[in-house]
Amino acid sequence: SPEQCSRAVAVQRRVDCHPQPGATQENCEARGCTWCTTDVPNAPWCFFPEDSPYGYSLGGNAEKTAKGWRVTLNKRSQLSLFGNDISPVVVDVEFQTKDRLRFKIYDPNTERFEVPLKIDSPGVAVISIYLQITTTVPSTSVYGFGEHEHVSFKHNMDFVTYGMFSRDQAPTPFANLYGVHPFYMCVEDDSNAHGVLLLNSNAQDVSLSPNPSLTFRTIGGILDFYVFLGPTPENVVQQYTEAIGRPHMPAYWSLGFQLSRWGYGSIDVLKETVNRMHRYDIPYDVQHLDIDYMERRLDFTYDKENFAGLPEYLQELKKAGMHNIIILDPFISKDEEPGTYRPYDLGEEMGIWVNNSDGVTPAVGQAWPPGNAVFPDYTNPRTVEWWNQLCLEFKNVLDYDGIWIDMNEPSNFLQGQFPGCADNDINNPPYIPSISDRSLAEKTLCPDSKTYLGEHYNTHSLFGWSQTAPTFHAVQQATGKRAFVLSRSTFVSSGKHGGHWLGDNFSQWKDMHYSIIGMLEFNLFGMPYIGADICGFNYNTTYELCLRWMQLGSFYPFSRNHNEQDPAFFGEEFAKISRATLRIRYSLLPYLYTLFFESHVHGNTVVRSLMHEFTSDQQTRGIDTAFLWGPAFMVAPVLEEASTAIKKHHHTGIK
Ligand SMILES: *[C@@H]1O[C@H](CO)[C@@H](O)[C@H](O)[C@H]1NC(C)=O
Ligand SMILES: *[C@@H]1O[C@H](CO)[C@@H](O)[C@H](O)[C@H]1NC(C)=O
Ligand SMILES: *[C@@H]1O[C@H](CO)[C@@H](O)[C@H](O)[C@H]1NC(C)=O
Fold first, then answer.
1. Does 412 have pLDDT greater than 60?
2. What is the pLDDT of residue 83?
């Protein structure tokens, strides 16, 4: 009503009381919330009143614990937004190091899923810092949260919601993509920065509103917040990676230029491509093999017809000083003749698949291999053994130096496994966060499937993460060298064992710009070995776009072209320019390698925003069309069609 609206909280301070679609005045007021329409775009019309009956109040005094305080909270009323509210809940505040604070909000009476990531807590009592956190008014300079295609590095705070739930999804703004990183950094107006991790793997979303405020919603686990106190942006990332694990140290060769393509189709085309690269003398160190090297897309095989002689050819490449990466998928065909496909037979014998809700029959879905497929459950130690064994054996077939793990969201081409998901509260919870299709089963397995660590509902977004460390160790063991693992799905701390590419990007000018944002974000997430597919992946590229992308991509930490148009495709002039830009990269490799060392030892970013070095200069807060390698080298690429220079007025503000 009008008088309700006039007394209502100001638009910019509204917190959505009906985050699921379909809010009406009736169902809003029925939950005790206020309904006021507004023409402010995306602002909620149904929101919590100032004296909200929801929420919790303090029950009794804070109790001192070994490393901080414990308080108990009780629900204020019987009202419930999503049902099954827990009361009381306990809040533990722990001073973990002098730069790190943990708030853990949990149910004292029932055990709930917790992310199995061990964060050491030496524990110190520095009470004054707590006061600082609670009194600080954050600014609107908020960065991070992933994985999404963000159109700016500095977030728009005008009622924007991002869902997080790993998904096989080509990058589109606002969609939840392959990985999950519930971490953000905020740079306050006085230039002090802090970072916050919500250590939670369930489907979740976060709303950014102009107050400025952030609202976290997750549908499982516990609310486990870690606060990193900075004060500089670099300090925040150092403190974050101290907690979750420092990035791995990549091999020097993996900083060289890399080539890949989906659809070489035959070893002859592969050889032609490699020869053409050499003929044009384009710096080039690593060759990737996408799924078409496999026999009928079966893991741990190669196509003995179209790729006859591949084992010998890979050895030849290695003798010439190159390195080879092979792709592996996390699904195993169950429909080969019994006794002919060892990966399935051995896995079946070992009982390593993700199971249906009964906990004993394997979940069967459909993916790249012909027939139907089962999904190795990498949270199970037996699966790790199986995978390790097969990776070691396969090294004797194809002489690889690293493994690229794809489709590990995990991707399934159906909605849930056969015969579809049961209608229950786990598969259809009362609130589904703001994720694509508002479905937890779309393109993946049913949430009530069973993994070793618990329900897929809890472990879904940990699938790629749980595959990364075992693959890293297998590669290390197989090669006896520093491991190379590239993973599509990632989670908090994946950077310890792998790198990432920004997914199946589109060959479009704006995507080229967004790749800088993605690269800056993954550096905040502790995954500095990062890059996008140079020239894009989907859609046809053009000469000019691909050329500009080669120039930008020469400065991705992970520099790989994964397009039908490789740098030798467009002829002499294109090759000449690619050679020149890559030679700049190569001349700077000792510097890049040193930055990775700093990152591995101290947790620094490798690629960083200008804001990290010039924090007090307010202009740098919004720059995402240029970036720095470490503190000392700036790259400001041409990102627009038909232009040959970077002008001032160009949103960078840089001359
Ligand atoms: C899945 O089922 C197999 C038997 O088929 C069993 O050996 C295994 O322990 C089960 N795993 C999980 C996580 O339920
Ligand atoms: C590609 O996708 C990633 C997310 O996977 C996104 O961050 C990035 O901006 C996209 N664009 C490019 C060109 O990489
Ligand atoms: C890409 O190029 C090929 C060959 O030139 C053409 O057949 C195809 O239609 C193009 N695809 C798109 C999406 O433009």
1. yes
2. 76
- Residue 426: predicted pLDDT: 95
CATH, range 56-244: 2.60.40.1760
Whether 134 has a pLDDT exceeding 60, the answer reads no
**Got the DSSP string for 455-487?**
EHHHHGGGHHHHHHHHHHHHHHHHHSS---EEE
Q: Whose atoms come closest to the Cα of 508: which ligand?
A: 2
Where does the pLDDT of residue 203 fall: very low under 50, low under 70, confident under 90, or very high at 90 and above?
Answer: very high
Q: At what angle do helices 509-524 and 543-553 cross, to 10 degrees?
A: 20
571 DSSP assignment: -
Quick: pLDDT tens for 52-103: 788 788 888 889 998 999 999 898 888 887 778 888 999 999 999 999 999 8
The strand ranges marked E within 100-192 are 100-106, 142-146, 160-164, 181-187
Closest CA to 247 of 588, 528, 552, 635: 528
Digit-coded pLDDT (tens) for 357-401: 999 999 999 999 999 999 999 999 999 999 999 999 999 999 999
For residues 557 and 559, give the distance between their C-alpha atoms in angstroms, rounded to a whole number: 6
DSSP 618: G
Q: Provide the percentage of residues in the chain whose pLDDT is more than 70.
A: 96
Q: Which residue has the tokens 């996408």?
A: 290
- Mean pLDDT for 591-620 is 97
Residues designated as active site:
406, 409
Listed by start position, the domains of the chain span 2-47, 56-244
Q: Taking every pair of C-alpha atoms in the chain, what is the biggest distance, in angstroms?
A: 80
Give the number of the atom of ligand 1 that is nearest the alpha carbon of residue 451.
13
Same CATH topology for 2-47 and 56-244: the answer is: no
Sign for the pseudo-dihedral over CA of 351, 357, 358, 361: negative
Under CATH, what is the fold of the domain 2-47? Spasmolytic Protein; domain 1 (4.10.110)
Q: State how far the Cα of 636 lies from the Cα of 511, in Å rounded to an integer.
A: 16
Beta strand 223-228 pairing with 213-218: unpaired
- Overall size of the chain counted in residues: 655
Q: Is the CB of 242 under 6 A from ligand 2?
A: no
Q: By the 8 A CB rule, do 229 and 129 touch?
A: yes
Ligand 1 near 355 CB (within 6 A) = yes
Ligand 3 pocket test: which of 506, 540, 542, 569 has the largest number of ligand atoms within 8 Å of its C-beta? 540
Q: What is the mean pLDDT of residues 31-45?
A: 93
